[in-house]
Amino acid sequence: MARYTGPLCRLCRTEQKKLFLKGDRCKSDKCPINKKRASPGKDPKARAGKRSDYGVQLREKQKLKRSYGMLEKQFRIFFDRALHMPGITGENLIGLLERRLDNVVFRMHLAVNRNQARQIVQHGHILVNGSSVNIPSYLVKPGDVIEVKESSKKLNVIKDALKEDSKSGTASWMTVDVDALKGTFVSVPHRADITDLADIKEQLVVELYSK
User: Fold this and answer.
1) Nearest by Cα to 111 from 67, 80, 156
2) In terms of domains, do 103 and 62 share one?
3) Angle, to 10 degrees, between the axis of helix 8-15 and the axis of helix 53-67?
4) Residue 165 has what pLDDT?
5) pLDDT per residue as tens digits for the range 36-89
6) What's the domain count of the chain?
7) Within 10 Å of residue 158's Cβ, how many Cβ atoms?
């Protein structure tokens, strides 16, 4: 599966917004956004003029896509699926993104960021309803039980991630048993429940793709 392999902090600098792509580093003084570093590229101030409507829509799409660690082709597939679902397309899109297995593993605090969660899934450390699933884009359904495989419960990467659990609570649409490294995806979250995306305007993404 294709994935972005470049520097993650560069993506945050491009958007001039914390996308929380590197776990603890994003919360520390080392974060380039905290240091107010300029956007990457030659003479960014010369490109800092007023954006067109298209430019504003594009930036919203890039922020949402990059927050979930996806490339354009796969993100567009998710949008097309959301478009054909009943309801509001933008909210449908975010609901689908939240159902991705790598995102659910991240929300369970089994990984410090979605990139790490994707790797944990791909390496076969995760079970869904008792069966091994190694596809990060697998869509979890309400009622599904997600857990760490017994042979993988001693992995340091998972133990280290769980140390952050006390600092940020579990998502309200999930229940998690930290001791058993198991959780249940209770329901698809409402848009208002996803507070870390509060400043992203998904309707602009819909407008961009509708042109």
Assistant:
1) 156
2) no
3) 150
4) 60
5) 565 665 555 555 567 789 989 998 999 999 899 999 999 999 999 999 999 999
6) 2
7) 20
